[in-house]
Specification:
The protein is an alpha+beta fold. The chain is built from 4 helices and 14 strands. Among the domains are: about 40 residues, no CATH class; about 180 residues, Beta Barrel (Thrombin, subunit H). The radius of gyration is 61 Å and the shape is rod-shaped. The two termini are about 105 Å apart.
């Protein structure tokens, strides 16, 4: 095979140099002339060739080379050197290009390696992300199950009573009494708090010349203004010039009652303030007036007190009990807005 150096065949380079040397030598020999022809021993001498008059006089070896010939010779040498320089330059350029290509290929390999590592890392991170998402989903499902389970368990009743007790009052009308609780309704001028109670508790005060209405919490007795009432839904609205913290309505926060849920009835049966009974919601009656049936015990004096859920929110106003165990009813709190006030 022919050796190649930098893209130029080495044999062609050598042949070019040899041919140049042969031409240079021939030119130098042709410029010299010898006076005597060579003779061989034992052979007769021949007549020397006499050049004709028209022939140019040969240049003798002892004569100096003219300036023109020297310039030609020097030019050819310079041309040869330029040729060799070009060949070498091409060779060097080819070597540089090859080095650059090798470096480029190495960089490409390194880039591919880094790309593969990045893809592998991204795959691992994606897998971990899916694992985290799965764990979050499982945690969400577990939290939902815990909330559902918690709803089936009774709340901490002592904490629940402490939460609402400051809002519950005893209502007095003449010789009768019942219960009531503060709600968040706008009070008219001269009053601070709205109180809801059962309409049948204040029945005597609805007549002209009837007894006045008072509310108490502990030993404090406060005069109340009977503002409105409705016997069909068994709810009445009082206003007092005293401050009691209002109880929230369950329906305002989306905790509508459902059968089987926990319920607590609080009131003042026979004047015993803060009496508490607990049970569940036994049935719901949606036809007006909406009623809530519960097995939380109600006794005389409980009427007008709140029926609350596990969150301390009002479900209804304790209204009446039928003969038989566990047949107790409360008027749904939303009846207040249906017939008594603008909510």
């Amino acid at each position: 095979m022919i050796g190649v150096r930098g893209g130029v065949p080495a044999r062609l380079e050598t042949e070019a140099v040899d041919a140049f040397e042969v031409r240079l030598t021939s030119r130098l020999n042709a410029s010299r002339y010898h006076d005597a022809a060579p003779t061989k021993v034992g052979m007769p001498m021949e007549e020397p060739i006499t050049p004709s008059q028209d022939s140019p006089e040969p240049v003798r070896s002892d004569q100096p080379v003219t300036g023109k010939g020297r310039r030609v010779w020097v030019g050819r040498v310079v041309l040869a050197l330029i040729l060799l320089s070009l060949i070498g330059g091409v060779t060097l350029s080819q070597w540089d290009i090859r080095d650059l290509r090798d470096a480029n290929e190495q960089l490409k390999r390194e880039a591919d390696k880094l790309g593969n590592q990045a893809a592998s890392l991204a795959g691992r991170l994606d897998g971990q992300g899916r694992t985290v998402a799965s764990l979050q989903q499982q945690l969400g499902d577990l939290s939902s199950k815990l909330r559902q389970t918690a709803k089936k368990l009774p709340p901490n009743i002592p904490d629940l009573i402490r939460k609402v007790e400051d809002s519950i009052v005893t209502v007095y009308v003449g010789n009768g009494q019942g219960s009531g609780f503060a709600v968040d309704l706008e009070a008219p001028a001269g009053y601070q708090t709205a109180i809801l109670t059962a309409a049948h508790v204040v029945d005597a005060a609805t007549y002209v010349g009837g007894p006045r209405v008072f509310v108490s919490q502990g030993s404090d007795l406060v005069a109340a203004k009977l503002w409105n009432w409705n016997f069909r839904v068994d709810i009445a609205v009082l206003y007092v010039n005293a401050r009691f913290p209002p109880l929230p309505w369950a329906s305002d926060v989306g905790h509508d009652p459902s059968v089987g849920e926990f319920a607590v009835a609080i009131g003042s049966p026979y004047g015993l303030e803060g009496t508490t009974t607990s049970g569940i919601i036994s049935q719901l009656y949606s036809q007006f007036p909406a009623l809530i049936q519960t097995d939380a015990a109600m006794n005389p004096g409980n009427s007008g007190g709140p029926l609350i859920n596990r969150y301390g929110e009002v479900l209804g106003i304790n209204s009446f009990a039928l003969s038989g165990e566990g047949l107790n009813f409360a008027s749904a709190i939303d009846n207040t807005c249906a017939r008594l006030i603008q909510c």
